[in-house]
Amino acid sequence: MRRAFLAACAAISLLLSGCASQLSIQAQPAADHQTVYVAGQPLMLSDKQYSVAVSPSSSLAMSNESLSFLVFLTNTHDEPINFGPGNITALLNGQPIRVFTHEEVLVQMERDRDAQALSAALAGLGQSMSATGHQQHFGTMSGQYYGRQGYVGHGTGTYSGTTYDPTAAAVAQSSIQAKTQQNISNISQRHDQEIANARAALLLTETVYPGQSHGGYIRTEQLGDNNTSGTLNLTVTVDGEHHSFDFAVRNN
Questions:
Q1: Which one, of 180, 195, 164, 48, lies nearest residue 123 by Cα?
Q2: Domain locations in the chain?
Q3: Whole-prediction pTM
Q4: CB of 212 within 8 A of CB of 67?
């Protein structure tokens, strides 16, 4: 039963941690695009009646993570306009992929935090269960043999057996539990900081007044390991005007 439980913990922990491949993401500027820089980061600029600039947040990503893009709009008209993630659509090789809202991204980040904390807890539980087990020992023995007429001979052999030291087991469990709690605390603190940073950086829907700019990061759904190579297209639609941006995605 103990072995089955430990195996189940290991399997669930592996499932939660997941496995992924690395993706490369490269901008494919169109002939009418310009290159502009925001805080040192190059963006493709589509300058029509409205000005829209887009760039991947990184040239590398993992297939089990959502892709992130920086999007900026400048309102060059004389009327205010609402702009946010709802103005953006995405296609991978012509098939639609989801663009998450600000709230959806934060919920997913919280789920990721909880999943990693659960994985750490399961790993600690498995180690703690192992620490309560019996310890196996090996050794040799020897002896002399006597018959009715006295000494007959000498022999040696090996033996194995198990012992249980409750004090040592308790000390080991206490140490494992403390380390597990610290791991969970570190995961929570790291993810909480990432969530706080995301709240400030993600694109929110806002009213953009004439002459003003509004921007932030958007995230798409995970691409997975299947059919990830090809062209990813982001289309930003502002008051019926379409701004199209292509990116080459390769599974490394």
A1: 180
A2: 2-6+20-131+158-251
A3: 0.62
A4: no
> Which of 125, 138, 131 shows the shortest CA–CA distance to 167?
131
Sheet hosting strand 230-238, strand order edge to edge: 60-62, 22-28, 241-251, 230-238, 88-92, 95-97
Secondary structure class of 30 (helix, strand, coil): coil
Helix/strand/coil for 5: helix
**HSE value, Cβ hemisphere, 13 Å, CA-based, for 124:** 18
Residues 6+ apart with CB under 8 A from 8: none
If DSSP codes are grouped into helix, strand and coil, which group holds residue 186? Answer: helix
**DSSP string for 114-127:** HHHHHHHHHHHHHH
User: Does the pLDDT of residue 154 top 50, yes or no?
Assistant: no
- pLDDT at site 122: 67
Instruction: Give 160-204 pLDDT, tens digit per residue.
Output: 445 556 666 666 666 667 776 777 677 677 766 776 666 667 888
Query: Residue type at 188?
Result: S
